[in-house]
Amino acid sequence: MELRHLRYFVAVAETLHFTRAAEMLGISQPPLSQQIQRLEHEIGTPLLRRLTRGVELTEAGQAFLPDALAIVQMAEHALEKVRGVARGMSGQLSLGFASSLAFGAPVFELIRRFKARYPAMELITREENMALLMQDLREGLLDAAFIRLPCESSKAFNLRVIATERMMVALPASHALSQRPAVALPELAEETLIMFPREVAPSLYELIVSTCLRAGFSARRFQQAPQIASSLGMVGAGCGIALVPASMCCVSNPLLRFCEIENNTLFTDIAFAWRRDHPAKTVLHLLSLINER
């Protein structure tokens, strides 16, 4: 039994007329009648009763129609689904995020636009530190990822910078310098510097550490927080100060103040990263949205 035979039968059953069904299918009436007869011969019983004007379903035809219609609809749905996947209009996109991008507005604005343009696309997201993110991207567990630069291991991938963020100083609200709009790093050299774990963003970690050491900070006064977000909680608790991306200033905590850095040389890029070999169409669609900005 061929799928086209079911499609022909459904067309005739819905129109109850061979000529109208043939026009709807885009074929002539004689071949349509022949194909229906073949289907009836294969089943072993008539499905249609020919009348002077049109046709009517036999009892067997009435029983057969719901299942035939369901099969035809399922086949059309499967065909449309696979075509959508091939065009990158549907299917799945596995996307990674660096842990430090939890408040990265440009990233999530892109995701909002992507979902609006491709509503049938299923997004599978994962948040990791940079080391795991690069490993998952390399091994094909992710189609693409939003990462922070500098990142040494990112050189193995295609990169598109989508935003640049300056680093800012997070101070306890009770700190003597907390009301200043900007603070010079040497003014904070005697403070305990609360750092995010190195694996969160190794190259950015090294950049911050080297800049602070040049500004007179002592490595003995560095203290590690479990995550970049938790470093703010430690600052609010009076454990020290932290240097964080400007996007984290959206964190509302009455125990915190954020200040600009005078003569600031600490900047970090937010980038879209994808593998160089045969990127998925879904990745190219997201990249085209980035290029529209």
TrEMBL record:
Molecular function terms from GO: DNA binding; DNA-binding transcription factor activity
GO cellular component: protein-DNA complex
HTH lysR-type domain segment(s): 1-58
Top-level taxon in the UniProt lineage: Bacteria
A Pfam match: HTH_1
Gene3D superfamilies: Periplasmic binding protein-like II, Winged helix-like DNA-binding domain superfamily/Winged helix DNA-binding domain
Signal peptide feature range: none
Keywords: DNA-binding, Transcription, Transcription regulation
Family, similarity comment: Belongs to the LysR transcriptional regulatory family.
UniProt name for this protein: LysR family transcriptional regulator
Organism: Candidatus Pantoea deserta
